[in-house]
Each structure stands twice: as C-alpha cells, then as structure tokens.
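[scheduler] slot 2 assigned
[scheduler] job type: sequence-to-structure, two independent chains
[scheduler] chain ordering preserved from manifest
[runner] begin chain α
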Amino acid sequence: MTTTSASALRSGTVAAAGAVLWRREGDQLQVALVHRPKYDDWSWAKGKLDPGETWIEAAAREVLEETGFRPRIGIPLPRSVYSMQQGKLKEIRYWAAEVMSGSGDLENEIDEVAWLTPAQAQTRLSYVRDAMQLQAVIDADRAGKLQTWPLAVVRHADSVPRKQWDGDDPLRPLDDTGRRQALALVPVLAAYGIERLITSPSARCFATVQPYAAAAGIRLRTKAGLSEEIFDKEPDRAVRNLKRLLKRGEPAALCTHRPVLPAVLERLRDTAEPDSEVHEILAVAAEDGMTKGEALVCQISGRGRAARVLSVERHTPA
C-alpha cells in the first residue's frame, strides 16, 4: 500500500482520514467514539486532509484534535467511500491506533469521547458504514494482529551528485530537495510514534532522519554496518542491525543506502506470510528499490524470531 497526499484522487472527491483509537481495560478491548453536537452523531475520529497533507499525517492530526490523545498509528483498516449530499464522493482512510500521550482535552467540534466495548460501540455508531472498521479491529484482535509495533525502513533523501562532490563520499550532503524530503518525513515518522533511530553514519543518511530526531527529542544512533562501504565488505552486518531491532520490538526507524536495502527488505519479507500482499510488496521493494526519501513502514507483531510483518505502507516524497 502506498500512502501519499490526496492529489491522485478523482477530481471532486473529498479526502479524509481517521483512526479507530483502542485500548484495553484489563482483558477487555475498548474503542473510542466521538460525538459531534452539530450533527448529534457518534463516529470515529476523522477529518479532511489539509492542502499538501498526507493521509497518515491527517489521521494522526485529526485524532489528536478530536480526542485530545496523541495516537500511534497501527494497522490499516478498510476505507469508506460514499456519496455526499452535494453529489461528491468522500473517501476516508482509517487505521487502528493506540494512545501514546495526551490530556484528553476536547475542542468545540467534539463534546464527548466514549470508550466502549465493541458490542457497545456497535449499537452506538450512527452510520452503518463505520461498522466495517469496527469489525476489522475485532477480527485483528481475535487473530492476535491488533497489537503491533512499527519499523520504518528509510532510504536517504536526495543528495549532491557524486560527480559534483570533491570530498569523501560519506561526507556528501543532502541537496535542497533532499532537505525538503527530510523535513517531510518528520510528521510521517511522528504519526507512527517512532522512538528509536539508527542510521548509516554517512552524512546523507544522518541528515535524512536528523530533523525527526530533533523534533522528537530522541538520540540518533549511527551504525557502520548500514553504510555502503562496510556493506560492500561485510554484508551480514546490515541484517544483524535489523535483527537487533526485531529483537527489541520497539517503534523504530532504520536509514540506509540503495545497495543495502535489498538485504534488509528480504529479511523482512521472510517474516511475512508467503504469497501474501505484504510478502509481495516487500519483494517488489527489494527488487525494484525505494525512492530517495521514501519511508517503508512495516507493522510487526511479536519480536525476535516470532516477529511477523502484518502490513506495509510506502510513503514516497511528493
């Protein structure tokens, strides 16, 4: 699945995004519904995309604005497409999400957030179409696939061409386009609540994820095994870095180079169900490569040898 801005939608289609916020009270699954007094309805937290905004950014922003809780975006859920009164189509993309932080303070558009069991939510929902997302959450929970953690694989952003650089290649910096791409990654990685960052020590990789590290206030760790130079001599070291992330099982991002990516993506592919869409997406990314500045985000259940990639989303630069 590729997640970009809504510019590719058919003219006249209204783009919106949201999430089913969930938590556990003891052993009981609960989901959050929001009430809009203007319409006197109960639904999922959602809203329209701002100009230039991506679906994932909008989903995280709208959940925060409407519930007062900062979400960690998880597995994708079924989207809703329906006709509006003005004759336009509206497409809403949804994800499951957990609460990372927040006060729960509400804005004027929402006057109540209700945490309900799935059965209670089923009877409270105002729109039949919202039952699709609820059922997907229930099914994922029963299958042990609702609780996940994100791993983002990032290819460094555009850099000064080799032919135009006189210094050592590891010191080659990002160009103007690359710096813009690095800034655009900040809200994407924030939506997934990335807490750990490892990168090739090359300047172009470090600078790609440094803006997010600064915004999130987290340490950026350099790993020589993710560099082109070390990979050429010791290719196993890149996969060892990935295995350590899989063992930790924490929201993380790994930034590296085009020649290193196939080894990393093939290792992730091997954790996906054979013949699945996820397996195919990772295989294609490994073979065809990733765009500079792209973040490929896997939702993973379990850790270590039990880690399994359940979904993949590709965030490409605009």
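[runner] end chain α
[runner] begin chain β
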Amino acid sequence: MLKPPSNQQRLMFVVTEDWYFVSHRLPLARAARDAGYEVLVATRLADKAETIRREGFAVIDLTKMRRTGRNPFSELSAIAELVGIYRTHRPDIVHHIAMKPVLYGSMAARIAGVRSVVNNLAGLGFVFSSRSLKARVLRPAIRRLLAPALNRPRTLTIVQNSDDARVMTDAIGVEPAHLRLIKGSGVDPSLYPMPHREEAPPLVVLASRMIRDKGIADFVAAATQLRRAGDVETRFVLLGSPDVGNPHAIPEAELQTYDRDGVVAWWGHRDDMPEILARSAIVCLPTTYGEGIPRILIEAAAAGCAIVAYDVAGCREIVAHGDNGVLVRPGDIAGLAAAIGGLLAAPPRRAAMGQRGRARVEAEFAQDRIVAQTLAIYAETVGP
C-alpha cells in the first residue's frame, strides 16, 4: 500500500458488519475523505464490500470478529487480528463503532501503539440492557475492561444519548473529559420531502431488524387488540429482515405466520424507506434494546410521521412525549395499543406531531450537523 502524503492523516473505521457501515457511517466517511483524510474500512466483508470499494476506500476484511462470538479463544484471536491490522496499516486515528469493536479495538490500539482513538457506542447493547443471566455475568467484566481502555490519553468516546452518558460515568467509571455526546448518525432531511402526505387507510409501520428485543411481539399484540376493537381502519406492517446470527432473531417462518394471519403484514427488507415513510401515518418502535438513538425514529421524524415508542433510553432522546410522539411504559401492550389508536383517531394531532418532529430533526439530528461534530472530534484527538 502506498503511504499517504506526510500531511494526510490515515483514518480507519472498525465495524463488525459492512452493511452497518454503509447504512450508518458512509456519509461520515465521505466527508472525512473530502476533508483530506485517507479512509480505510476494517469490517466483515459481505454484500456491501463492493459498495465500499466503489467509494475509493481501502477495505480490510475482519475474519475473526463476530458480533455474537463468545468462545474465549476466538475472541482473543479477534484482538490479535486487530493488532496485526493496526501494525500493518498504521492508522493515525481509529474509529471503533459498537461495543465489541470499542472494547477489542481499544485493547489492540494500545498494544499496537495507535496514537488517537475515537470510540462510538450506538447504545450499550445486550450486556447493559438485558436482564438475562449471561448479561449479568458479563457486565462486571466489561465494566472493568472498559474504564481503563476509554480513559487513555487521546481517546474520546461518543455516546448518543444522555442516559448512556450517565451510565458511562457513574457505573463504568469513564471520566467526563473523555466523553462526547453526539445524537445519532444523522439523516439527510432532503431525502424526506415535506409536506407529509399519508395514504388511506392509515399505515402503521415498525421498521427494524427482526429481533425480539425490538418489540415485534408487543407490536403484533397491540395491533391485534386494535383489530378486535374495530374502531379504526388501518394497516399494520413489519419492515425488515431476520438478523441472521443474532440469538434473538425471529425466524422467517414466524414472520410469515404473522403475514398469513392478516393482522400484521410482513414486507421484509426494503430499500425505499423514504417513500414508505412519506405514506405512513405512524411509526412504532416498542424496543427495549440498549440502543443509542434508533435511526428509524430519526427517519420517521424527518419524514413528518408521528411516533409511538417505549419510554427507554435513546427513544426519549428523539421523541418528546406529547410533542412529536407518544412514549409508553415498556411492556405495557394495552398502553401501546391506546397510544396508536388515539393517534389514528386524531389525524390533525398526528399531523402536528409530524411537523414538530421534522423541525426537531432539522435542528438537532441533520446529517451535516452530526458529521461536522464527528470531524471536530477527530481533530481533537490528534491535537497539537
């Protein structure tokens, strides 16, 4: 590989899945390239490898790291692989995205002598959100490893919501000077033209990876209650594919059963989300997963949709209760149904919510704003 000019900084993104890099970080990488960085992407190469290469970014295949890996020897080999990548490509800055790359990448960066590290936690994930025995066992160990890794010089960690910032400082012990709050990965409002023009009968959508923690079953149960009540005519739709390899993925056969039963339609993965959201009345996300800020809720607000979500970290960063949507106590299916039904029965109210949501995105979550904030963090870690 040719060495960059002496005045050019080499920036490496580290993320487990190539599709996630394309969907959430590609605009940032383009902006970094345009700002003069040489951009490299280390990820597990699959369907989006050519998309990344066409951007002119150097691509490095992560063969060892898996999101759901638990075998100790495999996990050590993933750290060793990153050490080798860092020593070979000698990045000036590494940008780790999500919990495992943050933890393993920070260890590897210290061993390999990487000078500047930016960590990006899009939520605290399974370990800090789940009540399962496995999560409770892993949590203390992760805490002990994270604090020293994230408190190193020239290391800054981005969190996406104020709840996660409190956990990082109070429960994990990360010093506030090493934390930065940036609200999500941003969306381009121009992709969601206004005014919002929903179709009839009203369309209520849940768009996400099809995993149980996203509240799929609660959405189906709420839709069933509303169908039985028969007060409103509407269509309920699930959008997204099963997350292959995730232990909480909903099998395709189960999703097809929902579709056949006729209460909730399953449309699978779609690439035309701006057009679907432009026609939707309500976007619902009863997630209990430890997310930063769910991107679909930012997209929904940008499109002028009213939102119904569970009152959890991340969701309440984009949804102001009663302003641009309704927040419901987690697990309250009757409350979820009532919130959806109330908005379906009040078109002017949900239209006003949609307008306020769009204004909120333009002021706080626009892609240009998020990109500029992140580039400033790169410059801060390099420093004088």
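[runner] end chain β
[qc] chain β: The CA atoms of residues 37 and 78 lie 26 Å apart.
[scheduler] slot 2 released
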